[in-house]
């Protein structure tokens, strides 16, 4: 029976159908997530209040959401840039960890003048993230080694580097926990007086707009799009495939590193062993929700940030774990993937005797 069933790629899918399919998959994922929360003990009548009102319509909740969105925008852009050229960056957390280490090093060692030290921290974070993704880039381009495996393994190495520092040379002598000493005012990004909202959010939004101009309005961005569609054809057409892929991948790693620097200097004000948790999955989810479009990344990042804000409230009042937030992200992502699959392919059943 199953030998008569084949998958046929749809040749022309109207944008209206693609949009409707995307919204349908998103709505289905959100509906399943709400059912999960109800099953976990959240009252049905409290869903709107917990997921919308307290997250986006209250001053404190919105400030927390906006603050959380800053590193999420950066890791979403990280995923989007790499995916544009078919480089599967599964090591976002590793690059973020190295960016956080580099930013903390500048602050802890008092490198540079105080007036510009926080910006030196951001530059160090950018450089560290790019350097951490360089080995997978070289090994893939020269020897065809899977970047998926390499970036994932380097995430574990990055986390072990953080633990080595926090349980050793950088452990705060005034604190019994494995954390670095707190940063001084010169190592903190300026805040606007509304919660922790500050220059980190402004920096992330500015980079997202610049990424939009770079990807959609520059020659390199057009080349990256052609390479993502078909690298073999792009190379045959004379496009600089290797150089373009290298640039996009290095920018991807740099943005992940900058996210670590923004967290250290914008919210945590110290290096901890928990500041990078779950950012790989969140970055991939944001990049997919945005269809790798930089401006879409902003919208998707605020949505995921709202999910984190709601998760914090649900954890306190209903005893839910952090795993529930990750599970909800997974449900939404799988719903969107399923919707995209059926919008791209159709089932064809051959008649008996024809298969």
UniProtKB/TrEMBL annotation:
It is found in: Cell membrane. The keyword Flavoprotein does not apply. GO terms for molecular function: transmembrane transporter activity. Its main location: membrane. Pfam families: BPD_transp_2. One of its GO terms (cellular component) is plasma membrane. This is ABC transporter permease.
């Amino acid at each position: 029976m199953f030998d008569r069933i084949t998958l046929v790629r749809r040749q022309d899918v109207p944008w209206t159908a693609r949009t409707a399919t995307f919204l349908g998959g998103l709505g289905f994922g959100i509906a399943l997530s709400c059912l999960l929360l109800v099953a976990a003990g959240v009252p049905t009548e409290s869903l709107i209040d917990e997921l919308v009102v307290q997250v986006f319509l209250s001053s404190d909740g919105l400030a927390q959401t906006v603050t959380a969105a800053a590193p999420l925008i950066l890791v979403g852009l990280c995923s989007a840039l790499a995916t544009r050229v078919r480089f599967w960056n599964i090591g976002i957390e590793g690059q973020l960890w190295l960016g956080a280490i580099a930013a903390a090093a500048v602050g802890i060692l008092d490198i540079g003048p105080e007036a510009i030290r926080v910006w030196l921290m951001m530059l160090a974070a950018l450089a560290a993230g790019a350097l951490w993704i360089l080995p997978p880039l070289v090994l893939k381009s020269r020897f065809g080694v899977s970047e998926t495996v390499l970036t994932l393994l380097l995430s574990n190495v990055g986390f072990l580097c953080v633990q080595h520092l926090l349980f050793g040379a950088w452990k705060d002598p005034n604190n019994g926990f494995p954390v670095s000493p707190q940063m001084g005012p010169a190592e903190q990004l300026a805040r606007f007086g509304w919660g922790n909202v500050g220059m980190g959010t402004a920096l992330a939004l500015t980079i997202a707009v610049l990424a939009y101009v770079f990807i959609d309005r520059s020659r390199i961005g057009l080349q990256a799009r052609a390479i993502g569609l078909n690298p073999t054809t792009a190379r045959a057409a004379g496009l600089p495939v290797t150089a373009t892929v290298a640039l996009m991948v290095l920018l991807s790693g740099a943005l992940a590193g900058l996210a670590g620097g923004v967290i250290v200097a914008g919210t945590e004000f110290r290096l901890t062993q928990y500041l990078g948790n779950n950012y790989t999955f969140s970055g991939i989810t944001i990049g997919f929700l945005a269809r790798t479009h930089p401006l879409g990344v902003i919208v998707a990042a605020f949505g995921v940030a709202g999910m984190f804000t709601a998760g914090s409230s649900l954890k306190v009042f209903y005893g839910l774990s952090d795993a529930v937030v990750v599970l909800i992200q997974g449900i939404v992502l799988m719903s969107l993937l399923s919707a995209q699959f059926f919008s791209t392919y159709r089932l064809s059943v051959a008649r008996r005797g024809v298969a």
